[in-house]
Amino acid sequence: MSPRGTGCSAGLLLTVGWLLLAVLPSARGTNVTAAAVQDAGLAHEGEGEEETENNDSETAENYAPTETEDVSNANVVKEVEFGMCTVTCGIGVREVILTNGCPTGESKCVVRVEECRGPTDCGWGKPISESLESVRLACIHTSPINRFKYIWKLLRPDQQSIVLVNDSAILEVRRENYPLAFQCDTLDNNEIVATIKFTVYTSTELQMRRSGLPVTDAALIFVLTVGVIICVFIIFLLIFIIVNWAAVKAFWGPKASTPEVQSEQSSGRYKDSTSLDQLPTEMPGEDDALSEWNE
């Protein structure tokens, strides 16, 4: 090989070596930079996960009492009692009262109002309004009035009743020369829940009944007034005697002692008369002595 060729190859080798030395540090720096960036990203992800876990834990801590409260409310036993029904027969309403677990902490609170039922037969009722010409009758019902079905019947003695065409809750009847009897059946789902009867008197009977009522009321009021006056008088008399007991005793004392003295005198006279009656009239031994002396 010639000296010139040897020198050229040596120069190439030196050039390649310098290039390798220049490339390797830059690549190493790039790797270091990428690793640093990757490490920083991992660190941020770790902090994000820690913050997320902290937030979840705080959220769980914040919501934990609410769940406890819900559980505690679910464990409360709600006791319910029912109020009195507004009617003694037919259909009415009553209150549903909560005695434990009221929302405002009260001892009792009304939860709702529900329907209640009693015996179906309500006997004989009174009209809602009446005059000398007509009378208005009403079936037993609750709101809403169109919820029920109503059947009106004209009652006849010893005969089958007549079903009227009117199917409303109110029936208006004109008075006749003879008394009439009506019956209303209230049905809910084709089941009779209430029955009531009415008597429609004639105009003459109505006037007689109206004229008889004031006399009875006047007599009753008079008797009650007299009784109250007598009771009040007796009470005041007793109070007066108790307050002025000394004066009353002084007033009645001499009068009460005079009969006692008279009774004592009469009893003494009676004793004297009885003692005189008991004295012997003759001496039994005196007669015997006289008879012996005469002999």
From TrEMBL:
The keyword Chloroplast does not apply. Keywords: Membrane, Signal, Transmembrane, Transmembrane helix. Residues 259-268 have a biased composition (Polar residues). Residues 42-69, 258-295 are annotated as: Disordered. GO terms for cellular component: acrosomal membrane. It comes from the Eukaryota. Residues 1-29 form the signal peptide. Residues 47-59, 284-295 have a biased composition (Acidic residues). The keyword Signal applies. The chain crosses the membrane at residues 218-247. GO terms for biological process: acrosome assembly. This is Sperm acrosome associated 1. It comes from Macaca nemestrina (Pig-tailed macaque).
